[in-house]
Predict the structure.
Amino acid sequence: MQIEFKQVGFVYQPNSPFEHRALKNVDLTIQDGAYTAIIGHTGSGKSTLLQHLNALLKPTEGQAIIGDRVINKESDNKNLKSIRQEVGIVFQFPEAQLFEETIAKDIAFGPKNFGATDEELGDLVKESLEMVGLDESYMEISPFDLSGGQMRRVAIAGVLAMKPSVLVLDEPTAGLDPQGRLEMLEMFERLNKEKGITIVLVTHVMDDVVNYADNVVVLEKGTVVKSGSPKDVFDDVQWLKEKQLGVPTASEFALKLIDKGLQFDELPLTSKELAAELAKLSVKKAGDASC
Amino acid sequence: MLEKLIFGRYIPGQSVIHNLDPRAKLLASFYFIGLIFLCNNWQSYLLAFAFTLVVIKLSGISLKFFIRGVKPLIWLILFTVILQVLFTKGGTTYFEWGVISITQFGLMNGAYIFCRFVLIIFMSTLLTLTTAPLALSDAIEYLLRPLKVIKFPAHEVSLMLSIALRFVPTLMDETEKIMNAQRARGVDFSEGNLAQRMKAIVPLLIPLFVSSFNRAEDLAVAMEARGYQGGEGRTKYRKLQWRMKDNMVIIAFALLTIGLVFLRY
């Protein structure tokens, strides 16, 4: 399902002294099946933008086209359920949304709201638990007995169980241990590559952006200031530093090497690319030496 | 939904009213509420209104706000006013039907009650709009201090109050977040009959309680780690200062009282 934003703007509490403009003239297309990363400073409007993706918020200007539905200022709040099922959002610290007595019930909560039958639910719960790396023995435990990381997994499983075709993730790995982080990011990549689920990832970790995303959208003060492939966005190191957005570790290291006199064909973004470039260089050097 | 509620919010500013001692404002607001009951004719209400409008003008906050603050309560006010109008007897009777009658006194009483409501809401809204919550809780702690004589835990009450006030916005944010998360999972908070709506609240309430427990635990540990051992022997960082302009408040209210008493008798 494709999501398209046309000149979307959003103002919180308009016409009051608490009025606050969060989005302005946002043009954005999230292609079906793509892995899009949204980056930007705290307060740049990322979270507001996310809530537009499944019509939790309606644009106060412009329109958001979600699948074949057009959401604008006038759209009513009825029949948004189909959108909510299609676009699953995992909010920041999703473990705060758990409430049922058992994990199985909590995971089943979403699909049940969207009308899944009891027989479907059993399989859905098992399947989604497996996807997040937990086994069936967890099904009858209270979610409040789990560790923070496991709670996070259960919460994500609860969203996955709705079988969304678009999965929106707001810093899903914040506060997780390195191992858990990696597992989770790999799971999202699998969902994207194998099941064709569109992924929208909000993150502050540039390494994750270059490692996984096909598209990057840079937000600043509520507007899109740059978008394109990671190569396009991360090529201009100076610009990134000006915006204080940070550079992927591999690029950072490559830049240091360039300072020392090494030359690369293009700036590597991931550690793999860096290793490949270095291998090329060493082969060349060996060749030069043997002459 | 919650954002329409103006009452109880604070708008930072630098006006005369903003800079008054919170104790002066708190006491003055309570005193004003008592004072309103002195009014018994239209001249006295006029004076009270004039006084309120001047104070609002001084605060530099637009009157529109205060009117908007009355709006959520308008049904309660109208209900009371209509009851007064329909069931008060006396004076000239304009209309009568069974126990219901519209009389001169009834209309007068209705109008007075309306004025009282509006004045009280204006004044208390002004208090919260111009006073930071923490300043307010400092003022309450100070004013409760005499009660220590009867073993009233003034420090504990004010500590609870300031923690509660501090966490109101945090909890509101949290509520909003959990609501959004559950809406994204297909909960409809604004649809269905009463029973369905009550049921829809559960996925909101349980996480809120759980996170409040967790927050309380974390906060208690953090407070202890920083050496908090109760109210005994603590010094204060924010000192309240009674200045000349706070005396002006007393003078202004004294004048208002004299004026109202004069108009009454």
Notes: The interface with chain A takes residues 3, 9, 11, 61, 65, 174, 177-178, 180-188, 190, 202-203, 206-207, 210-211 of chain B (CB under 8 Å). The two ends of chain B are 46 Å apart (CA to CA). Chain B has a mean pLDDT of 87.
